[in-house]
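User: Please fill in residues for this 169-position structure.
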């Protein structure tokens, strides 16, 4: 049973890490892998602290991914309004892009962030140049958010590795 649990955890961790750049819920797949490992091993090395930690990291990754897009839209000269446009546009774009296999949600999120930030900024400032810069800032922020999410995925994988190494039936 331990070999099955370890194999499942490794497979879900690798799959989760591969899913993150595609805009898919990779962190949540990794969390599911840790929960499955704990269940298959009787929760000997996966306890409340481990589960709480990986859940917190997964939630943090989701929040940071969208928040960074918000911040970068403002950093590139946009107003707070463009930040909200980047946030809302990214969410709507990701949902709209879901029907396109594998990369649709990523492309949708990037386009949605750009359009949302640019549109919200243009309705505020009435300057196309400022709106375009805010849109590009939202795209850079979305990419930075994905990088942070990958880093958090690596941390979750390390936590999973410690759970495997500390297992003693």
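Assistant: Residues filled in for all 169 positions:
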């Amino acid at each position: 049973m331990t070999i099955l649990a370890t194999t499942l955890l490794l497979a879900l961790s690798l799959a989760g890490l591969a899913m993150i750049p595609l805009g898919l819920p990779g962190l949540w797949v990794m969390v599911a892998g840790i929960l499955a490992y704990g269940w298959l091993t009787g929760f000997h090395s996966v306890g409340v602290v481990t589960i709480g930690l990986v859940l917190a990291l997964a939630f943090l990754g989701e929040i940071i991914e969208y928040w960074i897009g918000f911040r970068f839209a403002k950093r590139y000269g946009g107003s707070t309004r463009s930040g909200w446009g980047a946030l809302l546009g990214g969410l709507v774009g990701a949902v709209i892009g879901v029907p396109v296999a594998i990369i649709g949600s990523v492309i949708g999120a990037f386009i949605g962030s750009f359009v949302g930030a640019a549109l919200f900024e243009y309705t505020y400032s009435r300057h196309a140049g400022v709106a375009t810069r805010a849109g590009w800032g939202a795209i850079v922020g979305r990419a930075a958010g994905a990088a942070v999410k990958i880093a958090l995925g690596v941390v979750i994988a390390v936590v999973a590795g410690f759970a495997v190494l500390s297992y003693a039936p």
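For context: The chain is about 80% helix and 0% strand.
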